[in-house]
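Checked the freezer inventory, then went back to the computational side. Two predictions to log before the end of the day. The first one is the construct we discussed on Monday; recording sequence and tokens without edits.
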Amino acid sequence: MEDIEKYRKAKERVAELKMFYVHLIIYGIVNLVMAFYNLIYNPGYYWFFWPLIGWGIGICTHALSVFLKGRLFGKSWEEKKIREIMEKEPS
């Protein structure tokens, strides 16, 4: 039963990583197209930086949620805090 659970968690993790990389590739392609369009049709004003920055913040947030998952307030943190509180509580 434990191996099945490990496999399920690993599969979920791979799916999360895959979705992040797909998101990153789409971000790159769309922003390249917008930059190209901007430079061809409106070279006097670089508006493509605004969606680049906004979407970039979203990409950074997505990266943090994927790569720091469980490190900030994860399961081990919860268990550690529970033990701390239980030790401090009078019997």
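The second is the one RB wanted added to the comparison set:
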Amino acid sequence: MNSSSSCAQSRSLSSPVPAAVAVAVTIVSWASAFPFIRIGLQGLTPLHLAAARFATAAILVAAWLAYRRPRLPTRRDALRFAGCGFFGIAIYNALLNTGEKTVAPGAASFIVNSLPIFTALFATIFLGERFNRWAWLGSIFSFAGIGVIASGQPGGLIPGAGASLILLAAVCSAAFIVMQRRLIPVYGPLACTAYTILAGALLLAPWLPGAVSELTTASARTIQAVVVLGVFPAALGYATWAYALGHFGAARASNFLYLTPAVATVLSIALTGDEVRATTVTGGIMTIAGVAYVAWRGRR
């Protein structure tokens, strides 16, 4: 199916209001991951939280796959999806969850928002895409912002500190995005997401028994966090994102995602009582500005 024609058809059949709602649901869903991870960590270890979250998501994904019956991956592509699940689900969430034990959810969201920089770098190295001097300038400014954010968190960017682990999580997510690029034209974005979530859930399965054991004594708030993380950021967010892409196109829709760290910060204040530091605000603005500059000038 031709992607340009399908997007054009989707834009002609969808109205701006549902598409705007889809964008809003996507942003809130993805932003909610950061405070709910912090809540989930009150009763689960980082790996157990990741295993429980994606076991929940895998149930929804398996139901969708059974209903829609998308094209099954070839053996070679199945290995690629395994790689996507390893970097984009298992390692990413292990690092992010561990990092959020000490880093505030709002600060974590701004650090993760640097992943487009790493995606562009990997695309330059492995896919031959352009990354000019303006991109390097924007990247340096963005990384300086991350340094400002980290300076207000325990351990700063010292290897092994929370902020450094979250930055490494962003690198892993960028690697996953680049790996997935060649799979999306073949299988479509939703099927690719579904196969990646299943692969990640399987890789995290060894920690699932421990998660179940901890959940038997966990508070209702912790259990709620696991369900929310499995349903909204993992499943619903990607479904509404696909709808938004069909209406707005990739370039316009991606611009809305710059709002995600701000929404995550507001949700963190409301749900966890997170105190937003001046270093988080200043560094967050620098990080987003650098990422936006790379998107605007860096790859022309």
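For RB: The chain has a mean pLDDT of 86. The chain has one domain: 3-298. Let me know if you want it refolded.
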